[in-house]
Amino acid sequence: MKTRLIKALGITCPVIQAPMAFAAGGALASAVSRAGGLGMIGGAYGDAAWIGQQFDIAAGARVGCGLITWKLAERPHLLGRVLARNPAALFLSFGNPAPFAPAIKDAGVPLICQVQTLRDARQALDCGADIIVAQGAEAGGHGEARGTFALVPEIADEIARQNTSALLCAAGGITDGRGLAAALMLGADGVVIGTRFWASHEALVHPRVLKRAMAATGDDTIRTRVVDVVRGYDWPGRYNGRVLRNPFIQKWHGSEDALKLEAGVEAAKWAAAQETGDIDVATAFAGEGVGLISSAAPAGDILAKLMADAQRCLAGAAA
Amino acid sequence: MKTRLIKALGITCPVIQAPMAFAAGGALASAVSRAGGLGMIGGAYGDAAWIGQQFDIAAGARVGCGLITWKLAERPHLLGRVLARNPAALFLSFGNPAPFAPAIKDAGVPLICQVQTLRDARQALDCGADIIVAQGAEAGGHGEARGTFALVPEIADEIARQNTSALLCAAGGITDGRGLAAALMLGADGVVIGTRFWASHEALVHPRVLKRAMAATGDDTIRTRVVDVVRGYDWPGRYNGRVLRNPFIQKWHGSEDALKLEAGVEAAKWAAAQETGDIDVATAFAGEGVGLISSAAPAGDILAKLMADAQRCLAGAAA
Lengths: 319, 319
Known about the structure:
Two copies of one chain form a homodimer. Chain A is an alpha/beta fold. Chain A folds into two domains: 9-204 and 294-318, Aldolase class I (TIM Barrel), CATH 3.20.20.70; 207-283, no CATH class. In chain A, 43% of the residues lie in helices and 14% in strands. Chain A contains 16 helices and eleven strands. The radius of gyration of chain A is 18 Å and the shape is globular. The A-B interface holds A 117-119, 136-138, 145-151, 153-154, 157, 172-176, 178-179, 181-187, 217-219, 223, 287-289, 291-292, 313-315, 317-318 and B 117-119, 136-138, 145-151, 153-154, 157, 172-176, 178-179, 181-187, 217-219, 223, 287-289, 291-292, 313-315, 317-318.
């Protein structure tokens, strides 16, 4: 397969693994990169020591790193430490990338900006983003309301209008070869895949939580603020997170103010459940594509099957 | 182009025009059918006289009719009157199709069931639906929360598992040839298109409302209950409607209880605005794909361009 993304990143599959907070460590990132995609360490809320460890684990593979932009703004010194690890790309999501773009560009590191609206895409293009990721609401974890299907071509048209060299990836609901083929048809140069790699042997996910997710359908996920409220994470109001419904989410979704009042007790309960894999309380950050996944697999196998399926879809398209 | 849908419906383009309430009359439906797709009269809330007039207007073209299922349940006698017009297909959305499926099947009329979840799709398959429409949240007008991108392949997999002959169409965010090509990659046999035909010369839309929509981006739409509250329409709680934001929507979205208290005055104001095309109050039932549309056109031209673009996308896919 040949796309502009493959050429620009020096990869063989037009697939970037989403830098999923807590789940995407060095093992997953390096497995994806070794299989021909671009693996990403989920730098998330910016635990510098953890990020360093994950780069060590990935040593020998060319991997990138993702950071939550509004959190990076609280600890901007982190950017230099991440750039010092010579990441294959820097992936910024959820906030204004403008303050950080110059340092990333100066370091010669490709800047990937994940956006959820056309407005955000314009801001990212103004910052000189090399790759725009159009993330639809289907995605697991944090995001916004617009769906993948119309967002991708609308941003493709905007890039064409501006006549820039920026590339475009689709994210949200892309789980298999059909999704990659469809994203290319919509005008994307490649895809960002989270949930399918979240359900891999290399991801840092509790096996009981993973097992529960493998039995779920796409109907079983929901966008909610419950998980951020219980963790005391101060996310900007426009974002919420897609997770698998479970009794904990069902109890508190729509009652977030009440949850705040009991945050101490509930936070301890939630944190313990994340450790023990108590599926009634622990959170599975899964997207709607979870309904297309029935079992975990090694990340390299996932990517190889996805590419073969996509090529079969695309070859069949002409006929 | 050859797909199973084309063969099953005796059409030349795998495109069904969404039976949009109030906007899709006989002029639009017949124009789409004459151009090679399947045009549909938007039977909506079941005004039998209006539906009859629209069939008269479409006389000579083979068109179908769509009905809102929960509303049909309140006036089930309507079904016989519609079937008496020998529709090319009966399109049921929003509710349990089971009570109506036998009469439709007995009449030899293809039964199209629009669904918003995998659970709904299973119910529709149990009813013997000939065509399942997987409608994502991007769609204009009524619908639910799941996005098109993962819903379509998940329902495709369900149809394959059940080994039925049911066909699948994608709806929600499909506006141009890229969208049709992508939907086919996701496993659909065709597409249902609303907003792009809403912005046609034949649709029953006030020109000022249409002009405003043509200047909008996909960021400018929202799913809300405001319009149903002001009209006093008793929609089941799981559904809401995607519309273009305007001052009226911005004022009342999130304040629906307050709107109920002022429903008399506001209803009159809203109804008048629909007539006069006051864009600050009148509702444009547009999907997220509105950002991909910059001008209205004759429905036949829309379909011809969409098909040519899709074929170019698909032909390019193999390369």
